[in-house]
Task: structure prediction
Amino acid sequence: MPEKADAHAPQSLQGDQRQHGCPFCDEGLAARAPHVHGTCLAVADRHPVAPGHMLIIPRRHVVDWFGLTEQERSDADALLHLLRAHITAADPAVTGFNIGVNCGADAGQTIFHAHIHLIPRRQGDCPDPRGGVRGVIPDRMGYPAD
Result:
C-alpha cells in the first residue's frame, strides 16, 4: 500500500492527463508507487546512479518542471522532504543529496514527462564531489581559482 505524506487521496489519471506511450503515464504507476502526495508520486529510478535514487513525478502529463502548477511543485517539495527523511533513517551512510531536473533534450532529458531526481550521496562515493550538479558539464565541475 503506498504511503501517504498527507491526507490527499491518490487520484487516477484521466484520459486527457495521460500521454500515450509515456512510461510515467502508466495507469498502474500510482498503484506501485511507495510514496504518494496529492498530485505527485515517487518511485525508485530504474537506472539509479546511487542506491536509493528516487524520481518524483507529477500524475498529470507535463513536459518539464517549468510546466508544473504551483500545487504540483508544492506536492513534489513535500515528497522530497518525506523521501529525505525515509532515506536518511534507513541508511545512516547517506550524508548528502543531489536534487536534479533535466528540462529539454540539450539538458539531458530523455523522458518528456516532468520528473525530479533525488540522489542520495555517501562519503567517498566519488573521488571529489565538489561542484556537485556542476558536473553535468564535466569541465565545469571544479571552481576556478580566485
